[in-house]
């Protein structure tokens, strides 16, 4: 992607992720791309005073230069002079920088197909899951929207979860997925990493529903992709390291009353 | 953006939009980009039997080739051999094709900044608005989630709407917005068109809240951008034409009980 090269960032410049500590969150998609590529990066989640770093962007004192736009929310990636936010946007940039999209000459338009797959996974298996415990307001506690949360979760587990897993199963069955466990062009792209993290989070939040789907033999290719990403040598080492945050009060949370079978 | 050129689509090939009839919806963002650029395009919303065209993609009988991935939901854009979905993904492609992003040599990384702005507008001023009338399930009627809808809307109008309008006001105040009414680099990009449509929809759905904000002089640059897009010659002609769909039962709906002042 020549446009990424046009940002004049050297691949030797380390990446810097600005994100909340103590949960995987949307920042996790950025970490997985950097880890799979073996990229050199720092992560505010592991530095003291990191909440102030995040707030500086949200409240507008950062970025303080004349080339980057104000940013609304983390995750935020700094690479040299370039500062970006929005998870799928950062992934689009990293996909080109870290060769996590297919070669553009061999697969014309491939970066758009990968972007489309990542956007759909984030919509259906991350944003919609967050709304299961926060259907009314992100500004209220879960405890203040439990009734609505249960109602939304009942629908999510019954209709939305199988819809999106079914969509990705269909992609994996299609000819464009190619040989092997990946979504597109027979090679690992950042869309596979995004789907891995989404499925991983869903397994944590809805273990009963996922166990039932697996017992019934549903979506075998999606679960095989999850297992295949987990065994990538760099990802495996990362998941076992303290750099991997534990699930807590982020997107994917375990509440017994929301652990429905579907 | 060399990657767009690499799709080997000629700019002379007309674009084809696959979208539901009878509402602006997310397809409207695609239409506005095509209209502003004066591009040649067809739109299923104005063809007989278009619902079958949309369903063919959702149900998987389209795309029937070996190069495009299965697609989850409209809007869908076909350009020559390339078939894409996901609104921000289609806009990313069109931005490069139709010169609705700044020159990459002059503004390195500009396409990522524009993509980030568009994603944030779609998140905060379109997706979150849709959830005001559908907080529990897209599969249920509004009438079956009215109580929850009112509760969500109270929060949206009071906290989320000013948050996102405030964010874009901050972008427009920043140096990177440049001279004139636009978000980035002193020139119209597709992010301006996205923000226009979002503000336009919000004005339709929440006229009391928007009137109050305007009375109080809040977010003047955001409302000036809306007015400036509306006066672009091609957009003005489009908005007055039958190609522009009226608001109905889509993202932006008028329900008296949700028309709160905030």
Q: For the record, give the distance between the C-alpha atoms at the N and C termini of chain A, rounded to a whole number.
A: 42 Å
- The helix-and-strand class of chain A reads mainly alpha
C-alpha-based Rg of chain A, rounded? 18 Å
CATH class of the largest domain in chain A: Mainly Alpha
Q: How many domains would you count in the coordinates of chain A? A: 2
Order of adjacent strands in the largest pleated sheet of chain A: 2-1-3-4
Strand fraction of chain A: 5-15%
Number of strands of chain A: 4
CATH architecture of the largest domain in chain A: Up-down Bundle
Which spans of chain A of ≥5 residues are poorly predicted at pLDDT below 50?
1-8
Task: Name its key features.
homodimer; 262 residues; mainly alpha; Glutaredoxin; Glutathione S-transferase Yfyf (Class Pi), Chain A, domain 2; 2 domains; 4-stranded mixed beta sheet; 4 strands; 6% strand; globular; disordered N terminus
Structure, described:
Chains A, B: InterPro entries: Glutathione-S-Trfase_C-like, Glutathione-S-Trfase_C_sf, Glutathione_S-Trfase_N, GST_C, GST_superfamily, Thioredoxin-like_sf. Chains A, B: It comes from Lasiosphaeria hispida. Chains A, B: This is Glutathione S-transferase. The structure is a homodimer of 262-residue chains. Chain A has a 4-stranded mixed beta sheet. Chain A has 2 domains: 2-97, Glutaredoxin (3-Layer(aba) Sandwich), CATH 3.40.30; 110-233, Glutathione S-transferase Yfyf (Class Pi), Chain A, domain 2. Chain A is globular, with a radius of gyration of 18 Å. Chain A has 262 residues and is mainly alpha-helical. Chain A has helices at 2-5, 27-37, 50-59, 87-97, 110-133, 146-173, 190-205, 207-215, 220-230, 233-239, and strands spanning 15-18, 41-43, 76-79, 82-85. At the A-B interface, strand 4, helix 4, helix 5 and helix 6 of A face strand 4, helix 4, helix 5 and helix 6 of B.
